[in-house]
Amino acid sequence: xxxxxxxxxxxxxxxxxxxxxxxxxxxxxxxxxxxxxxxxxxxxxxxxxxxxxxxxxxxxxxxxxxxxxxxxxxxxxxxxxxxxxxxxxxxxxxxxxxxxxxxxxxxxxxxxxxxxxxxxxxxxxxxxxxxx
Length: 132
Known about the structure:
Elements: H1 15-30, H2 34-55, H3 62-73, H4 76-83, H5 90-93, H6 97-102, H7 107-121
């Protein structure tokens, strides 16, 4: 008699493509091929995220909460840009706008990333564990 096979969770990421991508990433870093390493790293991060978004059990309000998280995350590049000017004395009293504007091109990407990460890696409010 053989032991029963464990059923894979339908929300779990596909392991063979992830391991293959990890191997390509390690190989690209070893041979110092920067474009291939960046592509493999982006695939390694985006593959499980997109998989979880597609397999997510959607409940009422998920879209609004995800867009709200994207709105909050879109402000991170502006804050980081403003923090780069803190070491200059003239910028401590008045905000120097070139630091804030340096982060402006990254605002849409941060918003999309915040939304995707929220949808992919948080539980829906209705699916949590209830205490007895």
